[in-house]
Design a protein that fits this description.
This protein has 271 residues and is α/β, with parallel strands linked by helices. The protein contains eleven helices and eleven strands.
């Protein structure tokens, strides 16, 4: 795949044309239906001022060291700037791929995973325990910024939106914070996201977030019968306007064929 791209790394991660070429090459090598951008969970954290090491073609971008130290740093969290850095270039890549008539999906990273790339996770939980109002304020700000990211993605022409927050799983948060995060962030974020999307594309949730909503009685699974066996990604493209929300498979398994011709969809429940 690296030979196919023919670009130097990590520089190729930093500009729209490079990101587009990588995404297209990955799709071709995998035989997939969808170009996905970006390729890591660090774009949002980098935009918030995180110390991100771009890595190589073999090892992708990752957090090098936390830059936020305390609650004051968290409360100074800036707005996402869609006119700078890899965040801007990811949206540029979407437009380039759409101009090349590719189907394009974008991966949006959730608040806890972004925060994990900004501050030591132990310090984050200590602040959350002692001053929950601080974390609630920060996550609410991030929620509004991520909704803006979805707006920008739709304007750029995406065909699919994937929301991922692997640090927001039950195994990391524990029952108490898992429930708090579900009620204060996940449910309202997904509700507002679906209003913005308005049936234009299918939204995928990280299975950890799906589990959260279902376990807390905020959503339920439904089965949808496909016209024929197809990949998870192809199904999400085919079901635009018919299905709003999915999330029982990891997005990295998007090329897995649904041999039984069924896909699970999520239905949000009203209180």
């Amino acid at each position: 795949m690296v030979k196919k791209v023919g670009l130097p790394f990590p520089e190729a991660y930093t500009y729209g044309d490079g990101i587009a070429k990588i995404a297209c090459a990955v799709r071709e090598v995998e035989g997939g239906a969808l170009c996905m951008v970006p390729f890591c969970h660090t774009v949002e954290a980098e935009n918030y001022g995180g110390n991100i090491k771009l890595g190589t073609a073999r090892i992708g971008p990752r957090c090098e060291a936390p830059v936020y130290r305390d609650e004051d740093d968290l409360l100074r969290l800036p707005d996402l700037d869609f006119e700078k850095g890899r965040l801007k270039e990811t949206l540029v890549a979407v437009k380039i791929l759409k101009a090349a008539r590719e189907a394009v999906g974008i991966q949006i990273c959730g608040p806890l995973t972004a925060l994990n790339n900004l501050i030591d996770i132990g310090k984050l939980f200590k602040i959350w325990r002692k001053k929950p109002e601080v974390i609630e304020k920060v996550i609410e700000k991030m929620r509004l910024q991520l909704l803006r990211y979805i707006e920008k993605s739709l304007e750029a022409g995406v065909d699919f939106i994937a929301f991922e927050d692997p640090v927001g799983g039950l195994n990391i948060l524990g029952p108490k914070y898992f429930e708090l995060q579900g009620r204060h962030f996940s449910k309202p974020f997904v509700e507002e996201s679906l209003k913005l999307i308005d049936g234009q594309v299918v939204m995928h949730l990280c299975p950890k977030t799906s589990l959260q909503l279902v376990a807390l009685g905020m959503a339920e699974w439904e089965n949808y019968t496909l016209p024929e066996p197809m990949s998870y990604a192809q199904a999400c493209l085919e079901l635009r306007g018919k299905v709003n929300l999915v999330g029982n498979a990891c997005i990295h398994n998007r090329n897995r064929i649904l041999k039984d011709g069924q896909i699970k969809t999520l239905k949000l429940l009203t209180p």
